[in-house]
Design a protein that fits this description.
It is a single chain. The chain is mainly alpha-helical. The protein has a domain at about 25-85. The protein is built from 3 helices and no strands. The longest helix is centred in the C-terminal third of the chain and has 24 residues, at about 60-80. The radius of gyration is 21 Å and the shape is elongated. The two termini are about 15 Å apart.
Length: about 80
């Protein structure tokens, strides 16, 4: 049922408005998916060797640290938006 129908009962309109408000709030969660992308593609942020971690240059351990962080970000977005699908 479409929310744009003119002959829709008042209850259905309130449900449609609530659904659109929830969708608007949940779209903000999708911005969290941009964090790992930006953090790994903005090379001047991590283009250095120090500080080393157990002898591993910063460049490598920074990128490897984003593997689990990206999974956490993806899981958060999924958990916050799964009720809409």
């Amino acid at each position: 049922m479409s929310c744009a129908r003119a002959n829709t009962p008042q209850f259905a309109l309130s449900v449609c408005h609530a659904r659109s408000a929830a969708t608007g709030r949940s779209r903000v969660w999708y911005l969290l998916l941009l964090v790992p992308i930006a953090a790994t593609l903005w090379v001047p942020l991590f283009n250095r060797g120090a500080p080393a971690f157990f002898g591993i240059p910063f460049f490598y351990w920074y990128l490897l640290a984003w593997v689990p962080l990206s999974a956490i970000c993806s899981a958060l977005v999924y958990l916050q938006t799964r009720d809409q699908h």
